[in-house]
Specification:
- This protein has about 80 residues and is an all-alpha fold.
- The chain has one domain.
- About 60% of the residues lie in helices and about 0% in strands.
- It has five helices and no strands.
- The longest helix has 13 residues.
């Protein structure tokens, strides 16, 4: 894989410095965050004053699921619509 990517890159050393991490399904990330915070995944769809659940879920979805911030926002708000 390194050889294949390094041929397309202007700087071959950049390829070796890229982090290769496995991606999790968005629903799996939500389940893990909710379990650690002691809440239910359905609670992500509810807006509550001073709740950190939704921001934490959004923060974890980007790096661990590989979603963009826009897609993460769509996912969190669409969960609200699915109630």
């Amino acid at each position: 894989m390194h050889d294949k990517l390094s041929g397309r890159s202007r700087r071959p050393e950049d390829v070796s410095l890229r982090r290769q991490t496995p991606r999790l399904a968005p629903d799996r990330v939500i389940e893990i965050v909710c379990r650690l915070l002691g809440t239910e995944p359905a609670d992500v769809s509810q807006r509550r004053r001073d709740s950190l659940l939704r921001p934490i879920v959004a923060r974890m979805l980007c790096p661990h699921s590989g979603l963009t911030q826009r897609r993460t926002a769509e996912l969190v708000t669409s969960r609200r619509a699915r109630r």
